[in-house]
Design goal:
There is one protein chain. With about 600 residues, the protein is α/β, with parallel strands linked by helices. It has three domains: about 10-30 and about 75-225, Phosphoenolpyruvate Carboxykinase, domain 1 (3-Layer(aba) Sandwich), CATH 3.40.449; about 50-65 and about 300-380, Phosphoenolpyruvate Carboxykinase, domain 2 (Beta Complex), CATH 2.170.8; about 230-295 and about 385-585, Phosphoenolpyruvate Carboxykinase, domain 3 (Alpha-Beta Complex), CATH 3.90.228. About 30% of the residues lie in helices and about 25% in strands. The strands form seven sheets. Strands 1, 4, 5, 6, 7, 8, 9, 10 and 11 form a nine-stranded mixed β-sheet that branches. Bound molecules: oxalic acid (OXD) and manganese (II) ion (MN). Manganese (II) ion binds next to loops.
Length: about 600
């Protein structure tokens, strides 16, 4: 039975939906309009089926817990493919499969998969309504949990259809949870067709196709043919007591504190400063007429990592999570209140763990390390008044970083745009629980885009070089590392709200007033340029995290050389030049 809940007719959309329906043979089709009534209906159906569990409606109104299949708790990069026509267009950092063969394999799995299920058609808009930079996607899915998440994460329903009108300009997403077997799980991207096919997972970035699949992999491939950038970056506004507003964006690998930084609340000692959040995960940049880079956040919500989130690390997230939120794979108290490691110093008694089993201290983690919250950006006290500006906001500084226990200093600034691209291209970071695989291994994660770049990473570097080099006022590029450890394995830098001290130096640099020392790897703050007033950090420790160890950097260069070599002939000469310039600086 097919029924339409919108008057709007779009022939391209109708054809897409009927083609997918012929393949998946659903029991019925449900067009999502994004209304409150629709959401209530879906939520109550999910509660009946046990897909969602009601949380304490007094303490967490309109909030629910979902437990995913224990085999399906993180992105699966080894099952994620870029199916460009030519293998060389996917490049060495992506899995590639020939598009027709991959489609045939997936079509087999999709054939009849929705026979006893409802097929949901979810139109979503990435970016502000009315913005020329926003894009429409249509995700077809048999997971009502995915629908509920997309409703928070995107501008979903009729608003997206209105933006689309009769055009065929939309990204197509076909998703089914299949049988949830990792043996029949695949996430395929067809950049030339702007098509995503995902089967066998209901989790996060594998299943909410708007996020990594559309807004990063497909969008980065589109951006490479046009004149813009699709990046794995937060966007944050910082307003000084004098009313000077500066926007900063930052790329950090998954589960490395991006959401904390994006929602940062200034600490007591910076209470005259204001922060404002545009986005915590994805930024689309275009060149402005003023020769600056402007950014929009295509998303409308956060799918944040829960463990470690607390009133100290992220008070704005905690405030935002008070209502209308979905929690995935967290633990729950006897009162029906969500809990995860790091939320409070001690776990409450009698928790139920993320598997739904009684939990006692010593039983491993109560919440999965990659457990998540889904919440609307509009509930965040720090939400920016410029969130919906159709031109976006002008970005003055871009940060790159990752978890690095040793070597990379707290902060350093590139000499110029191309050197900044080199810094971004060579980011080394410890792996985290956001993706299946070993945690804590250092890997190169260029611009935090290694798992998300939808085309050849060396072409991506060339694209970056081209974008900034053609602008008279591109953002200044910095590298930061909040994660340096001392010999006892303790963090040296306090992090969280105190990171604003580093951001202040960055703003000072952008405005031409921050003091710096030139080192072989870039500009580092002079000890007095970084505000450490009232901080509990010794001058030895401060020296340690601001120092450049030439011998260790020369070793790092060998790893970078190997990495560049592994990327093949397309690696831009400019980056090889940067490497040899760095080597001579370190040796001289
Ligand atoms: C995310 C990720 O979910 O990067 O944002 O994995
Ligand atoms: Mn991310």
């Amino acid at each position: 039975m097919i029924f339409w809940v919108t008057e709007m007719k779009n022939l391209f959309l109708e054809k897409f939906v009927s083609d997918v329906a012929s393949l998946t043979k659903p029991n019925d089709i449900f067009w999502c309009n994004g209304s409150e009534e629709e959401n209530e209906k879906l939520i109550s159906q999910m509660i009946k089926k046990g897909i969602l569990i009601k949380l304490n409606q007094e303490k967490n109104p309109n909030s629910y817990l979902h437990r995913s299949d224990p085999n399906d708790v993180a992105r699966t990069e080894h099952l994620t493919f870029i199916c460009s026509k030519k293998e060389d267009d996917a490049g060495p950092t992506n899995n590639w499969s020939e598009p027709n063969q991959f489609k045939a394999k997936l079509n087999n799995l999709f054939d009849g998969v929705m026979k006893t299920r409802t097929m949901y058609v979810v139109p979503y808009l990435m970016g502000p309504e009315g913005s020329p930079y926003s894009q429409v996607g249509i995700q077809i899915t048999d997971s009502p949990y995915v629908v509920a998440n997309l409703r928070i994460m995107t501008r979903m329903g009729n608003r997206a259809l209105n933006h689309l009108g009769e055009s065929n300009n939309f990204v197509k997403g076909v998703h089914s949870t299949g049988d949830l077997s990792p043996d029949r799980r695949y996430i395929g991207h067809f950049p030339e067709e702007r098509l995503i096919m995902s089967i066998g997972s209901g989790y996060g970035g594998n299943a909410l196709l708007s996020k990594k699949c559309h807004a990063l992999r497909i969008a980065s491939a589109i951006a490479s043919k046009e004149d813009w950038l699709a990046e794995h970056m937060l966007i944050l506004g910082l307003e000084s007591p004098d009313g000077e507003l500066t926007y900063i964006s930052g790329a950090f690998p998954s589960a490395s504190g991006k959401t904390n930084l994006a929602l940062m609340k200034p600490p007591e000692s910076y209470k005259d400063w204001k922060t404002s959040t545009i986005g915590d995960d994805i930024a689309w940049f275009h060149k402005g007429e003023d020769n600056r880079l402007w950014a929009i956040n295509p998303e409308a919500g956060f799918f944040g990592v829960a463990p470690g989130t607390n009133v100290k690390s992220n008070p704005n997230a905690i405030a935002s999570l008070k209502k209308n939120s979905i929690f995935t794979n967290v633990a729950v108290t006897t009162e029906g209140i969500p809990w995860w490691e790091g939320l409070t110093d001690d776990p409450p008694n009698n928790l139920t763990d993320w598997h739904g089993k009684p939990w006692k201290p010593g039983n491993g983690k109560a919440a999965h390390p990659n457990s998540r919250f889904t919440t609307s950006i509009n509930q965040t006290p720090s939400v920016s008044p410029n969130l919906n500006d159709s031109e976006g906001v002008p970005v003055s500084a871009m940060l790159f970083g990752g978890r690095r226990a040793k070597l990379t200093p707290l902060v350093y600034e590139s000499f110029n745009w191309v050197h900044g691209v080199f810094i971004g291209a060579t980011v080394g970071a410890e792996t985290t629980a956001a993706a299946v695989g070993k945690v804590g291994v250092i890997r190169r994660d260029p611009m935090a885009m290694r798992p998300f770049c939808g085309y050849h990473i060396a072409d991506y570097f060339s694209h970056w070089i081209k974008i900034g080099s053609s602008m008279s006022n591109p953002p200044r590029i910095f590298h930061v590392n909040w994660f340096r450890l001392d010999d006892n394995g303790e963090f040296i830098w306090p992090g969280f709200g105190d990171n604003i001290r580093v951001l202040k130096w960055i703003v000072d640099r952008v405005k031409g007033r921050g003091k710096a020392i030139k080192t072989p790897i870039g500009y580092i703050p002079t000890p007095d340029a970084l505000d450490t007033k009232d901080l509990d950090i010794s001058s030895n420790d401060l020296d340690e995290i601001l120092k450049v160890d030439n011998t260790a950097w020369l070793e790092e260069m060998e790893v970078i050389r190997e990495f560049f070599t592994s990327l093949g002939k397309k690696l831009p000469n400019e980056l090889w030049d940067e490497l040899s310039n760095l080597e001579s600086r370190l040796k001289s």
